[in-house]
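#struct-help
A.M.: can someone run this one for me? Single chain, 349 residues.
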Amino acid sequence: MSRRRLPAVLVALALATCVTAAWSYYKLAGAGETMLGEAKKFIASLDAEQRAKAVIGYDEATRTDWHFIPKPDGQREGVRVRDLNETQRKAAHAMLKAALSEAGYGKATKIMSFEGLLLELERGKGNKNARDTERYFFTVYGVPSPESKWGLSIEGHHLSLNFVVDKGHVVSTTPSAFGANPAIVKSDNLPSIAKGTRILAKEEMLALQLVASFNDEQKKEATLEKLPTEVRNAGAAQPAMDEAKGISVGKLTGQQKSVLQSLIEEYANSFPSDVAKERMEAVQSGGMDKIKFAWAGSPKEGEGRYYCVQGPQFQIEFVNVQPDSAGNPANHIHSVWRDLRGDFAVPAK
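D.P.: on it. Structure tokens below:
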């Protein structure tokens, strides 16, 4: 029996309508909705044993237990990438992509890949830290649904990403930590990671550009007496609540304000556009003139440096003082964005 075919013009119109509808959905869907869909697919891909590791109660105390250091096996919640099959890995990375922007996903995956470089650099040195590109853990807290509040953590060495989604809306993305060892790749050790590669280039170079533009009086006001060796409250459930130090935005020139704005945006733009927009709105709603920039250390490559950008509602810290695994001085970055209203969607006390 022959089948009736729609005229070509009607087929074309139907396809166009479907494409337009699909595009409108993806354009309008927020990060929380996309994350919800990918989280459900990820959980569905796991077997019972994996699901028991990967999905934990939202109110468990471990939800706020975070860090970017290389922890021994058994000290991180979640399911490890190494223990996932190819289909499950794709689902995990689809969830990570949904939680970050394209730029942020690029940074996260490069950080993971650098574990392979560290393995080569530390080979034969007796380092007890296990360097493994697949030693990153994915954890879902609670049951993802359009009506629920649930959390997501992706964590391992030099990476700690923590999210809370409430009724389909991302309400927390902190603490978010990105690190790099080495900050600048100084030699050709792996064909896949070329000499000169940098993961967090703008986070460092924009701050250096700002400091280089300071006059003597501005530099004196911005500079801390002591060079910190680490970001504050690393691993603590809430950020340090010390009063902001350094030079206030109101004492910067228009060009300097623009550079500082670009620096803050570089951190915000690691996340999807709607999340980045809300981050920047929080920055601005607290009052731009209440933001302070603090600096310590040296602008010279190979010499330690630190900065903090802090306003009433947020805190960014960056430190590069440790040597890299090849022994090059001050070539090892830790950076973090924290919410002074409360990390993990837990109100600060």
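A.M.: thanks! The longest helix spans residues 8-28.
D.P.: also worth noting: Residues 113 and 192 are 9 Å apart (CA to CA).
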